[in-house]
C-alpha cells in the first residue's frame, strides 16, 4: 500500500487540529476549527457545476427516454395489414384479438401461425441451440424434427409449397415434420392445405407413404408425452389410398393410435380443419365437409397445442407438400367504422352494416374469404373497392374513408 | 508541491560538509537545516529511513541544484544530515516486530479470504439447482425472456463493474486511513453517479433497442432486471470493500430465500417467478446497503473520540476524484465486456441467422461460459493471496534496502513477479483442464443440459481455457494498481475486450455459434500479455516504481 494512503492513520495524535511542525505555518493565520467540521471548497467552477449536475441531468434524460418510448409503444399498434381502397380509403386490421390465450412471451407468437403460405424460399437448416430440432429459416417460430433424423429427413420451402420428405426408405415407419416452436390455444382451429400426396412407386412392395396433419400437446418438451390428434392420407404401393382420423397417446415413443374413422380416398388436394379441446371432443373437416365429429372421448391431450405438418414412410422415399397452414382463433370477418346501411360484398357474400359494423358470418373451421371487398356506402357516388386479399375467420378490420 | 522559489535559500559553501560536527561550524546553515528537518516531519511524521526524508525534501522542492547550493552533492546527501536532525524533534516509536506467522498458513488464509468473493455465485448456483430459480437466472424462462434478461445482465454487470472498481479504489483509500466520514462521502457519491449513469444507459437501451425490437412487455422486463441486477451488484461493493464476507453471504442467502419463497407463493408462473426474482434482488440489496451503512456509521461514531482520526474533514473536489478514478472505472467496465462479449456476439449472430436483428439467447454458448466462470471462484483466491503476499514483502524489502543494493531489490521483485505469475498460471492451467469434466460430473443434468448439445462440450473446454488466461491478467493488473499505474491495465483489458468481440464475431460467421468462446481465448491472451509486460516492467524498476506511486 502506498505510504500516502496509510500515513494519516499513523499521524501523531493531537487535540489541536492546526498544530503543525512546519514553521511556515507559524506565520499563517490560524483558524481553529471545531471537530467534525466539513471544510468545503470555495466557489464552484463551471466544470464542477457540470459534474454536480450530472446525476440530475442523467435521471431527467433517462426519465424522458423511458416515458417517451413507453408512451410511444403503448399506443395503438400499427395495423398488421392496411389495405388501400379506391378514393383513398383504408382498411386497417386489428390482430389484438388473435393473442387471446396465448403467451406473448413464447417463442413464436400466434400471428406467426395465422396464415403461413410458404411463399418465401427456405434457407439452409441448422440445429437450434440447445435442441435436437432444426430451424427453418426464414420462418420464425417453426422447427423441423422427426424419427427420420436430420440425415434422412428434409424440409424445404420452394415454389410456394412446403416440401416435407424422407430421402431414403426405411424398414419401419419413420417420419419427419415441421412444427411450431410456440403454442396455439385449443380454442383455435388448425387448418392445413396440402397438395395431393404422390403415388408410392409400385416396385416397392409393402411400402407406404403418409401425409399426416397432426395437432399435438405443447407440453411434449417438458413432459415427454406424445399425445396428438391426426388426419392422415395413407398411400400404398398398390395405389390404394385411405383417409383416416383419430388420436394417439404415448410417452416418449411408441404412441398407441386410436383410429376413429377410416375411409377409402382418392388423389386430390386436401383442405383439412381440425378442432379439438384435447380432452373429449374432436371435429375434423375435409375439403369443406365435416368428416368426423366425435365427443365423449378420453384423449388426455393437454392444451395448448402445436400443429405438425408431417410425412411418414415405410420402405420408400417419400415427400409430401403443403400449400398453407393457418391457426384460426375467431369466427366471422367483421368490418367496423362503416356508416349504417353500408353494404359490404366479399367472395359472394353480402353483409349490411348495422351499428357501424358489417359481419360476414364464417366459422373458424371454414376456410378464408378471398377476393375484392366492395363497400357501397350510402350517399357515395361510387363503391369503394379494396385490393384482392385473403380474409380469415376472426379477422377484424376498421374502415377509414378517404379524404 | 511548493515552487522552487519558496525554498529558503541557504548559504552556499565551497567546502562540502559531511557530518553534523562540520555543519556546526556554519551556524546559519545549521539553523536552516533545523527548519528543514521540522518541515520534513510535517510532511512525514515518522520517516523511517533515508529515502523517506529524501522524498519529503523533493516534495519541498529540493533538487540536486538546490542541494548543491547548500553544499551537498545530492538530495540524498542533504537528506542524510536532515535525517539526523529530525531525531531532535521526533522520538521513533519502538518498532514492534510483527508476530512471526507461518508463511504458508498466511498464504492459505489469504486464499480463503479471496475465495469469499465467489461465495454468492456458488450459493446462487446451488439454489438454481434446487429451486430452478436464483437471483436473475431461471431454468423455466422462455427463450425470449432469457434473451432480454441476459441483455439486462450484460449491461448491469458492466456498469456495476465500473462503479465497483471506482468505489473500491477511492473508498479503500479513505477506509485504510480510518477516515470514515470520507469513506461515506466517496461511497455515496460514487454509487449515486454510477446509478445515474446506469439508469441513463438502461433508458437508452430500452428506448433505442429493446422496446423497438422486442416490444414493450419485454422492454419492461429488461429495464426491471437491468436496474435490479445493477443495484444488487453495487450494493455488494461496500461489503467487499469492508471485507464483510460472511455478511455478504448471509444477505445473498436471504435474497435467494426470498426469491424461492416468492416463487412458491406466487404460484410458479413465469410472471410470478420474475416478480419473486425482483423481490429477492430488492431484499438482498436493501440488506447489504443497510449493513454497510450501519458499519460505517458505527465507525464514524467512534471517530470523534480523543486520538481518533482527524476531526476536520476536508473533502476533495469530486470531479478530481472522478478524474483520477476514471481509469479504474473503465477497467471495471471493459473487464465485464471481455468476459461477456462471446455470448453476446453469439446471441446477435444467432438472431441474424434467423433474419431478425434480435439478440436470441444462445444456450450452447451461454451455458458453457457460465459454467466455466465457476473456475474463477477457485482462482480469484490465488490472485488475492499473491497480491497480499506482494504487499507484505514489498515494504520490508524496500525499508531494509540500502541505496547501493537497488540491483538486489529489483532482482527480488522480478523473482517475486515470476514466482507469483507462474503459480497463478500453473494453477489456472490445472483448473481449466480439470474443471469441465468435474463440473459435468458434479452438477445435475438440468444445469449442464446446454453442454450436452452439439458443440456444447467444445464450447465449455474453450471457455475454460480462455477464462484460465484471465487470472494472470488480473494479478498483473493488481500489481500495477498497487503501484498507482492503472493505464496499462485499462489498455490491456480494453484491447482484450476488442479482441474478444472481433474474434467471436469472426469465428461465428460460418454459423457455428459454439466457436464463440474462442473470443475469450483471444481476449484473455491480449489482456494478460499487456498487463503482464507492463507489470513486469514496473516491478523491474523496483523502488522507482514504488516511490513514483506517491
Structure, explained:
The complex is a heterodimer of chains A (403) and B (550). Chain A has three helices and 26 strands. Chain A is mostly beta strands. Chain A folds into two domains: 89 residues, no CATH class; 226 residues, Sandwich (Jelly Rolls). In chain A, strands 3-4-7-16-9-10-11-12 form an eight-stranded antiparallel sheet, with no helix packed on it. Chain A has a seven-stranded antiparallel sheet with strand order 5-6-17-8-13-14-15. In chain A, strands 1-2-26-18-21 form a five-stranded mixed sheet, with no helix packed on it. The N terminus of chain A is likely disordered. Chain B has 550 residues and is an all-alpha fold. Chain B has three domains: 83 residues, no CATH class; 198 residues, no CATH class; 213 residues, no CATH class. In chain B, 75% of the residues lie in helices and 0% in strands. The N terminus of chain B is likely disordered. Chains A and B meet through helix 1 of A and helix 2, helix 8, helix 9, helix 10 and helix 13 of B.
Layout of strands and helices, then pairs:
The complex is a heterodimer of chains A (403) and B (550).
Chain A: H1 46-74, E1 82-84, E2 90-93, E3 134-135, E4 142-145, H2 149-152, E5 153-158, E6 161-166, E7 174-180, E8 189-194, E9 208-217, H3 220-223, E10 228-236, E11 241-251, E12 253-264, E13 270-276, E14 282-286, E15 289-294, E16 305-314, E17 318-328, E18 333-336, E19 343-346, E20 349-352, E21 357-360, E22 369-371, E23 374-376, E24 384-385, E25 389-391, E26 396-400
Parallel strand pairs in A: 18-26
Antiparallel strand pairs in A: 1-2, 2-26, 3-4, 4-7, 5-6, 6-17, 7-16, 8-13, 8-17, 9-10, 9-16, 10-11, 11-12, 13-14, 14-15, 18-21, 19-20, 19-23, 22-25, 23-24
Chain B: H1 20-24, H2 27-43, H3 50-59, H4 64-69, H5 75-86, H6 103-115, H7 119-131, H8 143-175, H9 180-214, H10 216-242, H11 245-265, H12 270-301, H13 318-353, H14 363-372, H15 375-399, H16 406-442, H17 445-448, H18 456-468, H19 470-482, H20 487-507, H21 518-540, H22 543-548
Helix pairs in contact in B: 2-5, 3-5, 6-15, 7-11, 8-9, 8-10, 8-13, 9-10, 9-12, 10-12, 11-12, 13-20, 13-21, 14-18, 15-16, 15-19, 16-18, 16-19, 16-21, 18-21, 19-20, 19-21, 20-21
Amino acid at each position: 500500500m502506498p505510504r500516502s494512503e496509510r500515513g494519516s492513520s499513523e499521524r501523531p495524535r493531537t487535540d489541536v487540529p492546526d498544530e503543525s511542525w512546519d514553521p511556515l505555518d507559524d506565520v499563517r493565520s490560524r483558524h481553529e476549527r471545531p471537530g467534525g467540521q466539513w471544510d468545503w471548497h470555495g466557489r464552484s467552477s463551471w466544470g464542477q457545476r457540470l459534474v454536480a449536475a450530472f446525476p440530475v441531468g442523467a435521471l431527467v434524460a433517462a426519465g424522458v427516454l423511458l416515458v417517451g418510448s413507453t408512451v410511444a409503444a403503448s399506443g395503438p399498434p400499427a395495423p398488421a395489414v392496411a389495405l388501400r381502397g379506391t378514393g383513398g380509403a383504408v382498411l386497417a386490421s386489428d390482430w389484438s384479438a388473435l393473442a387471446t390465450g396465448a403467451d406473448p412471451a413464447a417463442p413464436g407468437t400466434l400471428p406467426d401461425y395465422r396464415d403461413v403460405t410458404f411463399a418465401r424460399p427456405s434457407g439452409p437448416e441448422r440445429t437450434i441451440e440447445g435442441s435436437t430440432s432444426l430451424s427453418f429459416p426464414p420462418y420464425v417460430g417453426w422447427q423441423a424434427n422427426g424419427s427420420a433424423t436430420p440425415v434422412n429427413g428434409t424440409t424445404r420451402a420452394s415454389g410456394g409449397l412446403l416440401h416435407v420428405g424422407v430421402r431414403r426408405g426405411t424398414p419401419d415407419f419413420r417420419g419427419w415434420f415441421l412444427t411450431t416452436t410456440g403454442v396455439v390455444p385449443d380454442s383455435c382451429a388448425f387448418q392445413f392445405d396440402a397438395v395431393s400426396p404422390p403415388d408410392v412407386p409400385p416396385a416397392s412392395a409393402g411400402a407406404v407413404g403418409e401425409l399426416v396433419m397432426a395437432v399435438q400437446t405443447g407440453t411434449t418438451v417438458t413432459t415427454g408425452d406424445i399425445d396428438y390428434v391426426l388426419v392422415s392420407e395413407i398411400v400404398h404401393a398398390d395405389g390404394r389410398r385411405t383417409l383416416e382420423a383419430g388420436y394417439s397417446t404415448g410417452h416418449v415413443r411408441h404412441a398407441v393410435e386410436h383410429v376413429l374413422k377410416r375411409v377409402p380416398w382418392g388423389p386430390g388436394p386436401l383442405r383439412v380443419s381440425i378442432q379439438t379441446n384435447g380432452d373429449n371432443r374432436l371435429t375434423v373437416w375435409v375439403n369443406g365437409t365435416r368428416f368426423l365429429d366425435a365427443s365423449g372421448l378420453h384423449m388426455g391431450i393437454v392444451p395448448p397445442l402445436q400443429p405438425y405438418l408431417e410425412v411418414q414412410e415405410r420402405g420408400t422415399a417419400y415427400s409430401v407438400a403443403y400449400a398453407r397452414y393457418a391457426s384460426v382463433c375467431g369466427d366471422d370477418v367483421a368490418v367496423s367504422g362503416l356508416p349504417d346501411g353500408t353494404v359490404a360484398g366479399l367472395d359472394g357474400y353480402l353483409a349490411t352494416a348495422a351499428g357501424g359494423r358489417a359481419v360476414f358470418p364464417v366459422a373458424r373451421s371454414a376456410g378464408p374469404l378471398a377476393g375484392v371487398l366492395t363497400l357501397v356506402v350510402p350517399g357515395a357516388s361510387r363503391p369503394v373497392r379494396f385490393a384482392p386479399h385473403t380474409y380469415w375467420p376472426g379477422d377484424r378490420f376498421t374502415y377509414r374513408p378517404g379524404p | 508541491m511548493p515552487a522552487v522559489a519558496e525554498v529558503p535559500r541557504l548559504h552556499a559553501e565551497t567546502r562540502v560538509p559531511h557530518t553534523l560536527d562540520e555543519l556546526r561550524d556554519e551556524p546559519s546553515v545549521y539553523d536552516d537545516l533545523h527548519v528543514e528537518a521540522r518541515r520534513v516531519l510535517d510532511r512525514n511524521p515518522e520517516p523511517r529511513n533515508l529515502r523517506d526524508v529524501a522524498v519529503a525534501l523533493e516534495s519541498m522542492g529540493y533538487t540536486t541544484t538546490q542541494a548543491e547550493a547548500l553544499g551537498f552533492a545530492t538530495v540524498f546527501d542533504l537528506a542524510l544530515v536532515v535525517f539526523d536532525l529530525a531525531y531532535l524533534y521526533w522520538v521513533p516509536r519502538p518498532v514492534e516486530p510483527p508476530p512471526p506467522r507461518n508463511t504458508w498458513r498466511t498464504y492459505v488464509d489469504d486464499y480463503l479470504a479471496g475465495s469469499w468473493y465467489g461465495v454468492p455465485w456458488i450459493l446462487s448456483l446451488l439454489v438454481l439447482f434446487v429451486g430452478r430459480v436464483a437471483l436473475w437466472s431461471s431454468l423455466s424462462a422462455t427463450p425470449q425472456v432469457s434473451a432480454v434478461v441476459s441483455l439486462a445482465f450484460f449491461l448491469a454487470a458492466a456498469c456495476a463493474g465500473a462503479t465497483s472498481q471506482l468505489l473500491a479504489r477511492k473508498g479503500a483509500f479513505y477506509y485504510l486511513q480510518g477516515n470514515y466520514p470520507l469513506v461515506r462521502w466517496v461511497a455515496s457519491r460514487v454509487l449515486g453517479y454510477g446509478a445515474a449513469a446506469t439508469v441513463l444507459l438502461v433508458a437508452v437501451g430500452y428506448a433505442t433497442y429493446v422496446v423497438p425490437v422486442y416490444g414493450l412487455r419485454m422492454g419492461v422486463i429488461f429495464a426491471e432486471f437491468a436496474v435490479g441486477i445493477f443495484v444488487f451488484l453495487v450494493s455488494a461493493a461496500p461489503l467487499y470493500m469492508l471485507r464483510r464476507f460472511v455478511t455478504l453471504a448471509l444477505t445473498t442467502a436471504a435474497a435467494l430465500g426470498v426469491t424461492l419463497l416468492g416463487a412458491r407463493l406466487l404460484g410458479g408462473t413465469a410472471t410470478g417467478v420474475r416478480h419473486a426474482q425482483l423481490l429477492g434482488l430488492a431484499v438482498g440489496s436493501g440488506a447489504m446497503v443497510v449493513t454497510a451503512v450501519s458499519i460505517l456509521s458505527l465507525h464514524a461514531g467512534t471517530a470523534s473520540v480523543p486520538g481518533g482520526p482527524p476531526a476536520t474533514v476536508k473533502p476533495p473536489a469530486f470531479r478530481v476524484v472522478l478524474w483520477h478514478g476514471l481509469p479504474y472505472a473503465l477497467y471495471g467496465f471493459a473487464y465485464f465486456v471481455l468476459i461477456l462479449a462471446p455470448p453476446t456476439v453469439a446471441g446477435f449472430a444467432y438472431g441474424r441467422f434467423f433474419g431478425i436483428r434480435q439478440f436470441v439467447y444462445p444456450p450452447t454458448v451461454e451455458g458453457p461460459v457460465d459454467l466455466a466462470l465457476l473456475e474463477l471462484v477457485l482462482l480469484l483466491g490465488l490472485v488475492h493471496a499473491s497480491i497480499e503476499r506482494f504487499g507484505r514483502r514489498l515494504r520490508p524489502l524496500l525499508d531494509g534496502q540500502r541505496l547501493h543494493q537497488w540491483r538486489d531489490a529489483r532482482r527480488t521483485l522480478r523473482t517475486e513477479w515470476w514466482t507469483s505469475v507462474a503459480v497463478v498460471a500453473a494453477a489456472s492451467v490445472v483448473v481449466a483442464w480439470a474443471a469441465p469434466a468435474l463440473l459435468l460430473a458434479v452438477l445435475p443434468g438440468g444445469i449442464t443440459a446446454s453442454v450436452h448439445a452439439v458443440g456444447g462440450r467444445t464450447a465449455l473446454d474453450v471457455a475454460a481455457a480462455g477464462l484460465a488466461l484471465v487470472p494472470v491478467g488480473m494479478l498483473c493488473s493488481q500489481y500495477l494498481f498497487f503501484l498507482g499505474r492503472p493505464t496499462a491495465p485499462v489498455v490491456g483489458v480494453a484491447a482484450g475486450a476488442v479482441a474478444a468481440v472481433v474474434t467471436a464475431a469472426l469465428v461465428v460467421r460460418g454459423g457455428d455459434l459454439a466457436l464463440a468462446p474462442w473470443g475469450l481465448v483471444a481476449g484473455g491472451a491480449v489482456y494478460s500479455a499487456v498487463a503482464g509486460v507492463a507489470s513486469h516492467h514496473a516491478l523491474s524498476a523496483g523502488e522507482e516504481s514504488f516511490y513514483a506511486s506517491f
